[in-house]
Design a protein that fits this description.
Chain A: It is found in: Cytoplasm, Perinuclear region. The structure holds 2 protein chains of 2 kinds. Chain A is built from 3 helices and 5 strands. By secondary structure, chain A is α+β, with helices and mostly antiparallel strands. Chain A is globular, with a radius of gyration of 14 Å. Chain B is mainly alpha-helical. In chain B, about 60% of the residues lie in helices and about 0% in strands. Chain B contains 34 helices and 4 strands. In chain B, strands 1-2 form a two-stranded antiparallel ribbon. In chain B, α18 crosses α20 and α24 crosses α25. About 60% of the residues of chain B have low confidence. Classes of the chains: A alpha+beta, B mainly alpha. Chains A and B meet through α2 and α3 of A and α15, α16 and α19 of B.
């Protein structure tokens, strides 16, 4: 399961980061932060192609010896980053995609809430609850 | 002690009464005197009072313990309600009004208890708990007021809740417990007040709110302790409360966590949803509020409007956000009436101190109908590819929520997906089926071209008629009579068509219009083709020239026959036309079709009778080249040409010879005589190569040609015989030379005998073959006939 999940706003500041508390969260924060560069690179890589053609799922951003980082971008440039433990039996791509899909849906629901101001940190309890299974927390 | 379940109001009331009776301040026992006085104040007959005391067990104990006191009070309430006094009814009867005591002070107490929510009644009666409560009430009022600006009476009444929020020192959850009593009191006094809507919030949270905690909030610590003693498991007491009584008769029955864990559990489970149930008055109020925002009750309130509305409640945004997440069931960013009611209810609860549930209570869930309506509402998320995912995610979103309602949008969308999938699969299946239909069922028919040469005119006509009948699409246009080669070609075309259903047909065979039309219903086309092939042996089906694959008979004659077909197609059906049609074929190198058609035409002509004879004459002209062909045939015969056309030509010639003989029989023209001569000449010519020709003929003409050789042979035979006869000199010529002549004649006769015998055998063999073919073709025809008639 994922060890860290992060939702980054368009301006590249985190809206929501949640990681397995067993490990230093700071490390994951840093990983997510650095992964943003890769995300940006992937996004900009499709320069002339329209956003529609660009796939939302970015795939494996970069692997390290401990974990792998997967990325996902929405059409509104909101980025999702999932950090998965490498020791885990490597999750199939479809599983990662499904995780992103669920994450996206949860994020959508948060957005739908009129009481949520886009750009605010996500503090939805239900959203957090939903992301629990993703995290395996 | 009997189990006793009391509502909040009752609890409070009873506790106060107990205190009242507890003149000794023992907190445990109510003095009998006071109790009895109280009971008498209930305006019950003494017998009833005695009965009550007995039932409650006070007589046993000799004094009124708290439990007994409560039981007694309950019984009093029962009695005052007119219900029979039974222990069972203690717990079973719900919505029991509080016992009324006609006592001055008690009355006041009661009144105050009843008017718990009244801010005005803060004055007198204020046992500690109420005071505290009232204080909170005020705050609650203040809180509530802005929320409900339109409901005036509310500030007066409601606030039932004074939420023990701040109170519970002992239990953090105490504030969850909602003070129903006030609502109960309100109910008693002001049932009609819409404000009761607010009080509605007296439902207990399903959480492990400790009634104790709550009680502790309202009762002095010692009482609390007593409560604690009274109760078994403070934290575990769930106090599922029944819907607050918006109606006068409803007094919520609360499960006192007193020694009845089982009851608690039962009540808890049974009343799980009840705390969140919206009463009718509440609902009506909500509906009214809904109308202020959205006049159409079936419409939706947009998120922004809802946000404004609920912001007025002064709840923190975070909580409002949470409420929204709970209440917006279909996640569409808008609130339906049910969703709005649920949200409103949650707001009220929250304002009254109830913790927001983690998941939407069932009673607050929008109905399925709404779900159905909202299921179709597109997700505001414009993300592509997620149209289906929300469906699958919904179950994950609120795992604790009952899945029934949530499955609806999921099912709807998933059903759609499945439907599309099934459609696709079905279409593919149909495609495959379609393809299977295309597959030729009788490849043999395609390959075999047993076009019987021997065609009686009647048969030809019949076939023509059949063609006309069946070939509505096959526009075989035409000529009812098709030469065999055309048939062969048609058969080959059929074969090709069968095998190359739609594709090759249209290729390069412009004449095969009918065939192209056949392509559309390929299966039927195949059938037709089969019918063609089936019928072809019998005769000349004017089959729209199926594109003859170069295969069999790749002879040019076939191609020429195609042309012939076109020509034939162009020509309207008619027995005489074949003759005309046959005319052009004379030109082609191997006017097989013509020759074949001609003989057929001749046949038909013969069949027709005399009038056709005239047609034969013109046909005879073209026969001239046939003669030439005949010579060619001879040449070919010598060379054993592999052309089938020759055979038909030969056959044609032979036929013509036969016809000529026939004509001879009829005795007609000089032409005939010429033909006769020609035939004789031919016969002469034929006689020598007579042997060889049949052989090659036999070899090549596997199907139709076999017939032709037969035909050829027959006339050949006849000619041979004629020639033989003719050549045979009259025996009695000269005896002198007789021996030699006889011997010569004998030799000749022997030769002719052998030749004839050989011919006979060959013909026999051909006859057998033809018969077999005929049988097979007839069988095929029978098989195909139903198809052709379809």
């Amino acid at each position: 399961m994922a060890v860290c999940i992060a939702v980054i706003a368009k301006e590249n500041y985190p809206l929501y980061i949640r990681s397995v508390p067993t490990q230093g969260e700071l490390k994951f924060h840093y990983t997510v932060h650095t992964s943003l560069d890769v995300v940006e690179e992937k996004i900009s890589g499709v320069g002339k192609a329209l956003a529609d053609q660009r796939e939302l799922y970015l795939g494996l951003l970069y692997p390290t010896e401990d974990y792998k980082v997967y990325g996902y971008v929405t059409n509104s440039k909101v980025k999702f980053v999932i950090v998965v433990d490498s020791s885990n039996t490597s999750l199939r791509d479809n599983e990662i995609r499904s995780m992103f899909r669920k994450l996206h849906n949860s994020f959508t629901d948060v957005m739908c809430n009129p009481f949520y101001n886009p750009g605010d940190p996500i503090q939805s309890k239900t959203d957090l609850m939903k992301w629990q299974p993703l995290n395996g927390l | 002690m009997e189990s006793l379940t009391l509502s909040d109001v009752e609890q409070k009331y009873y506790s106060e009464l107990f205190l009242f009776c507890d003149v000794d301040n023992t907190k445990k026992v109510a003095s009998n005197g006071k109790v009895l006085d109280l009971f008498r104040a209930a305006q019950l007959s003494n017998e009833v009072v005695h009965q009550i005391t007995e039932l409650c067990g006070a007589t046993r104990l000799g004094h009124f313990g708290r439990s007994q006191f409560y039981i007694a009070l309950k019984l009093i309430a029962l009695a005052q309600s007119g219900l029979p006094l039974r222990v069972e009814s203690l717990n079973s009867v719900r919505d029991l009004p509080l016992p009324r005591f006609v006592m001055g002070k008690n009355e006041q107490e009661m009144r105050h208890v009843v008017m718990f929510a009244d801010t005005e009644n803060q004055g007198p009666y204020l046992p500690r708990p109420p005071g505290r409560v009232q204080a909170k009430k005020v705050s609650a009022h203040e809180m509530i007021q802005p929320c409900v600006p339109t409901v005036d009476p509310q500030p007066d009444t409601t606030s039932p809740v004074v939420s023990p929020n701040q109170s519970p020192p002992t239990s953090p959850h105490a504030w969850r417990k909602h003070k129903r009593q006030a609502s109960g009191g309100n109910v008693d006094r002001q049932p009609s007040v819409p404000g009761v809507v607010w009080p509605p919030f007296r439902e207990a949270q399903p959480g492990p709110v400790t009634g104790d905690g709550m009680w502790s909030a309202h009762s002095p610590p010692p009482v609390q302790e007593s409560w604690v003693s009274f109760t078994d498991t403070p934290p575990s007491c769930t106090l599922p409360m029944h819907p607050p009584s918006a109606q006068p008769e409803s007094t919520t029955v609360r499960t006192v966590p007193s020694a009845m864990t089982t009851n608690e559990i039962q009540r808890q489970t049974s009343g799980y949803d009840d705390p969140w149930k919206i009463t009718d008055e509440q609902r009506q109020y909500y509906i009214n509020q809904f109308k202020t925002i959205q006049a159409d009750l079936t419409g939706l309130i947009p998120g922004s409007a809802a946000k404004e509305f609920f912001t007025k409640s002064k709840l923190p945004i975070l909580e409002l956000s949470h409420i929204w997440e709970l209440s917006d069931f279909d996640k569409d960013g808008a609130l339906t009436l049910d969703e709005f009611c649920a949200a409103f209810h949650l707001v009220v609860a929250r304002k009254n101190g109830y913790d927001l549930p983690e998941k939407l209570p069932e009673s607050l869930m929008p109905k399925l109908i709404d779900l159905d309506d909202s299921a179709g509402v597109p997700e505001p998320d414009p993300e592509v590819g997620f149209s289906a995912s929300p469906v699958e995610v919904t179950p994950n979103k609120s795992p604790s929520m009952p899945s029934l309602n949530q499955n609806w949008p999921e099912l709807n969308q998933s059903n759609e997906q499945w439907e599309t999938f099934s459609e696709r699969s079905s279409s593919s299946q149909t495609l495959t089926q379609f393809d299977s239909n295309i597959a030729p069922a009788d490849p043999d028919t395609a390959i075999v071209h047993p076009v019987p040469i021997r065609m009686t005119p009647s048969k030809i006509h019949m076939q023509e008629m059949e063609l006309k009948r069946t070939g509505s699409d096959h526009t075989h246009p035409t000529s009812p009579l098709m030469a065999k080669p055309p048939e062969l070609s048609e058969e080959t075309k059929l074969a090709a068509a069968i095998k190359f259903p739609g594709t090759t047909v249209g290729d390069g065979y412009s004449s095969s219009d009918s065939f192209t039309s056949d392509q559309e219903p390929i299966s039927s086309a195949v059938n037709r083709q089969r019918s063609h092939s089936g019928t072809s042996p019998e005769g000349l089906k004017v089959v729209a020239p199926p594109p003859p694959p170069p295969r069999p008979n790749a002879s040019h004659s076939r191609s020429s026959s195609l042309d012939m077909n076109r020509n034939f197609a162009a020509v309207p059906a008619g027995p005489q036309q074949p003759g005309v049609v046959a005319f052009p074929p004379a030109v082609p190198p191997r006017p097989l079709p013509t020759q074949t058609s001609v003989p057929h035409g001749h046949r038909s002509v013969e069949g027709d009778g005399l009038p056709a004879i005239t047609s034969t004459s013109p046909q005879q002209m073209p026969e001239q080249p046939n003669f030439a062909d005949f010579s060619q045939f001879q040449v070919f015969a010598v060379d054993q040409p592999a052309d089938d056309g020759e055979k038909p030509s030969d056959s044609g010639q032979v036929e013509r010879c036969a016809e000529t003989t026939g004509t001879m029989r009829t005795a007609k023209n000089d032409v005939q005589a010429e033909e006769r001569n020609a035939t004789t000449v031919n016969s002469a010519k034929v006689s020598t190569p007579l042997a060889p020709p049949p052989k090659p003929v036999r070899r090549r003409l596997k199907s139709e040609d076999e017939l032709r050789p037969d035909v050829e042979d027959l006339p050949q035979k006849s000619t041979v015989i004629a020639t033989v006869l003719a050549t045979q000199p009259s025996i009695p010529r000269s005896i002198g030379k007789d021996k030699k002549a006889i011997q010569a004649s004998i030799r000749r006769n022997k030769e002719t005998n052998t030749v004839l015998a050989r011919l006979n055998s060959e013909l026999q063999q051909q006859l057998k073959d033809l018969l077999e073919e005929r049988i097979s073709l007839e069988v095929q025809l029978e098989q195909l006939r139903p198809f052709s008639h379809l």
